[in-house]
Amino acid sequence: MKSVAGILMLMLALCIPLNAQTPSKDPKMDAFINKLMSQMTVEEKIGQLNLASGGGAVAGAKMGIDSMLKHGFIGASSGYSIESIRKTQQKAVETSRLHIPLLFGLDVIHGFKTIFPIPLGLSCSWDTLLIERSARIAANEASTSGISWTYSPMVDITRDPRWGRIAEGSGEDPWLASKIARSMVKGYQGNDLSKDNTILACVKHFALYGGSEAGRDYNTVDMSRITMYEDYFPPYKAAFDAGAGSAMSSFNVIDYIPASGNKWLLTEVLRKQWGFSGFVVSDMNAIVEMSNHGMGNAQEVGALALKAGLDMDMGSDVFFTTLKKSLSDGKVTQQEIDQSCRRVLEAKYKLGLFDDPYRYINVERSKTDIFTPDNLHVAREAARKSIVLLKNENQVLPVKKSGTIAVIGPLANSKSDMLGTWAFFGNNRDVITVYEGIKSVAGNNARVLYAKGSLYTADSILSNNSGFMGARNVVDFAQNEVLLKAALDTARRADVLVAVLGESANWSGEAASRSDIGLPECQVSLLKELLKTGKPVVLVLVNGRPLALPWEDAHVDAIVEAWNGGSEAGNAIADVLFGDYNPSGKLTATFPRSVGQIPIYYNHRNTGRPFDQKNKFTSKYLDISNDPLYPFGYGLSYATFEYGDIKVNKSALKGNETLTITAGIMNTGKYPGEETVQLYVQDPVASISRPVKELKRFNKVMLQPGEKKEITFTLNTDDLRFYNSDLKYTWEPGEFIIYVGTNSRDVKSVKINWLEK
Ligand code: BGC
Ligand code: BGC
Predict the structure, then answer these.
(1) 320/437 same-domain check
(2) How far is the C-alpha of 642 from the C-alpha of 709, rounded, in Å?
(3) Domain boundary residue among 562, 584, 606?
(4) Torsion on CA atoms 293, 299, 301, 305, rounded to nearest 10
């Protein structure tokens, strides 16, 4: 067999297994899918890559959903109700030739019916077990109602609170966000995806979506590869390493190529570098929107997406309407279609849908497992732990359960605002508002009054733009006056005023960027009038992003950041206000003093001219300090914690040795309290400029009044690694500074030397 043809044949024989998908670790699954795929037409294969959902689906709509299902032209759908999911699944498996079940996905972002705080809030708990539990409960509830796939976790790092989607992620720190990402994947997927109460996670938005320029949603992203690898990629990678079975491509460009058509991102990084073997779905309509990015017509962007490594088209109908033509035009290959089809079928197989297409529809369990007292208990715990005490002077807090308490503000008795963004399926009716929570926790000992006090905003632009699907919200100034007057009458009759201010739930989340992140003027006017009464005022904030609060910080004694706290928000806030729970949350995103400081984040790099008061020619603003109002990691307690000096086992280390760091911490206050002790590292001299500090460890510790504990951390050289300018993940010997403290600003430090050998 020395002929050219012979060699070619030999090569062909060797190539076949290479060309086919690399075998998975499950030969049974491979055999099942091989057999199934051998029976599938190309149209049926393309059908598996089609997620039919609201938005696009023009061709689908023309053809009619039943006919689409019968022909096997739909592979997945966004699920809305248990009844419609059952019907659709039934049509798919009973009327189609090969009986392939559909995957039903949904945005189960921070709970299904039992709603937990928005992810940004949850992240402030720094409690990864609790976060995992919240995801477990969400999966358990959703999986009763036909949902086998959640479009979560959202792990986009962002340094821009103007971006409304900051609400959906875990803030600015890559290390903490990575831990949280892992916990969420574990919570959703458990150890066995085929169980009827575990669901497939979808890591989104891959990638860098949080880097949108100027905080405007869907905007251009442009950053260096080092920043990608160092600061923005880690949480995605952590979620994939934890076994997340799917990913969603983001709307933005990366190196000026949209994520959905970016081969470097979806194949080189995701599959080759990170070894991801699940499937990638586009974000809603993102494939067809590549045309707006300037990438060509529908057929061209469809081919670009498939070739880049994108497997499923959410909502834009482009795969369904153009891939077959692209195949006959030679723009995509059969192998590329097969590969994506296989990935989708594998997910269905792993979920057990081929064994039982109705596995995730369980009416019995929906009666016993949804919105249960146990779930609500965890939601209350999560909401308490998400709350961050920003200021507490003159011992305004905790409030006594006696006398008359007036709860005032547009967010004081609003149910939907407690839930926040992405809570369509939340049990709205049963949400506890702040007013209701305070009444119930105070019991019979206190009188609790309520007044709305003001509109959300008197700005008709903000009001109208945040209306859903163009709904207009009329701003009625006269009504605002009436509300204010009534609130002042109420305030006059009270001993303590709780002002509940912030953002309407639709001011954060998708397509909800703000250029001004302060409280709206009419709410600040209300606050000023309340302060004029001279009565103690507690400001409770309900919102989805860091706010700029310089005036409030200067004038109000007590400020509580409660976020959109979920089903039990009102009870949790009351627990904190009355001291039944001592707040312990710590910010995971910096609170700026002003929008002008954005982007502002703790792990920035030094300039060549660090700020120096005495020198005009140093890095600063003329009109505002460089410092944030509240730094990353910040959050007070009713207790006070005193940190002793940091001790290390060695100040000079070599190679594989372990550094042990010990810090004493004492509760010097009157209340038992939980502190999150934070450890940061700085690498002051390296081949590239390194951050001034990076979070590497933390430890949550409970202390009784007067109690003292020693907290020990260990580090090794893996904790010193970074991506150098060759994008090599390495560490460089030399001096390191270890910081331990109560937030990223207030720390004690010790220097060590770590040598290679
Ligand atoms: C959002 C995604 C979401 C998807 C499906 C998109 O507009 O960007 O986060 O998962 O819709 O609802
Ligand atoms: C400025 C330069 C200037 C140089 C010499 C520096 O501080 O940045 O623009 O040319 O001083 O005066």
Answers:
(1) no
(2) 11
(3) 584
(4) 160
Picking from 519, 551, 584, the residue at the C-terminal end of a domain is: 584
DSSP 713: E
Q: How far is the CA of 620 from the centre of ligand 2 (A)?
A: 17
- Higher local confidence (pLDDT), 477 or 620: 620
Mutate to test the pocket of ligand 1, among 151, 152, 217, 312 (most ligand atoms within 8 A of CB): 151
Q: Answer whether residue 680 shows pLDDT above 70.
A: yes
Ligand 1, atom 7: closest residue by C-alpha: 284
Average pLDDT over residues 652-679: 97
**Same domain for 410 and 328:** no
Identify whether the C-beta of residue 333 lies closer than 8 Å to the C-beta of residue 327. yes
| 309-318 pLDDT tens trace | 999 999 999 9
Q: Which ligand is nearest to the CA of 618?
A: 2
Distance 693 CA to ligand 2 centre (A): 30
Count the domains in the chain.
3
Residue 37 has pLDDT above 50, yes or no: yes
Q: Is residue 114 a part of any domain in this protein?
A: yes
Q: Is 283 marked active-site?
A: yes
Residues 172 and 208 in one domain: yes
**Domain with 261 in it: what CATH number?**
3.20.20.300
> 68 in a domain, yes or no?
yes
Nearest by Cα to 322 from 301, 307, 340:
301
Domain containing residue 474: CATH number: 3.40.50.1700
Residue 358 and residue 454 in one domain: no
Q: What angle do CA 748, 751, 755 make, to 5 degrees?
A: 150
The answer on 662 and 543 residing in a single domain is no
How sure is the predictor about 23, in pLDDT bands with cuts at 50, 70 and 90? confident
Rounded CA separation 226/724 (Å): 7
How far apart CA 722 and CA 681 sit, in angstroms, is 12
Contact predicate 633/744, CB 8 Å = yes
Question: Does 622 fall in a domain?
Answer: no
- In a shared domain, residues 185 and 230: yes
Give the residue-averaged pLDDT of 583-601.
98
User: 682 alpha carbon to ligand 2 midpoint, in Å?
Assistant: 30
Pocket residue to mutate for ligand 1, from 51, 80, 103, 107, most atoms within 8 A of Cβ: 107
pLDDT, tens only, 384-440: 999 999 999 999 999 999 999 999 999 999 999 999 999 989 988 899 999 999 999
**Which residue's C-alpha comes closest to atom 11 of ligand 1?**
284
Q: Is residue 636 part of a domain?
A: no
pLDDT of residue 427: 84
- Tell me, what's the pLDDT at 80? 83
Per annotation, catalytic residue among 107, 156, 231, 283: 283
pLDDT tens for 99-154 read: 999 999 999 999 999 999 999 999 999 999 999 999 999 999 999 999 999 999 99
* 395 in the same domain as 361: no
Which ranges in 96-227 belong to alpha helices (H)? 119-123, 128-142, 174-189, 225-227
Six token digits for residue 115 = 């709603």
Q: Which ligand is nearest to the CA of 154?
A: 1
Q: Are residues 334 and 428 in the same domain?
A: no
Distance CA 358, CA 352 (A): 10
For residue 684, what are the domain limits?
641-755
User: What distance in angstroms lies between residue 610's CA and the mean position of ligand 2's atoms?
Assistant: 17
State the closest ligand 1 atom to the C-alpha of 168, by its place in the atom list counted from 1: 9
Measured from CB, residues less than 6 Å from any atom of ligand 1 are 107, 151, 204, 283-284, 510
Centroid of ligand 2 to alpha carbon of 608 (angstroms): 14
Q: How far apart are CA 243 and CA 241, in angstroms?
A: 5
What's the pLDDT band for 470 if we cut at 50, 70, 90?
Answer: low
pLDDT at 697 over 80: yes
Tell me 620's DSSP state. Answer: -
State the pLDDT at residue 18.
Answer: 38
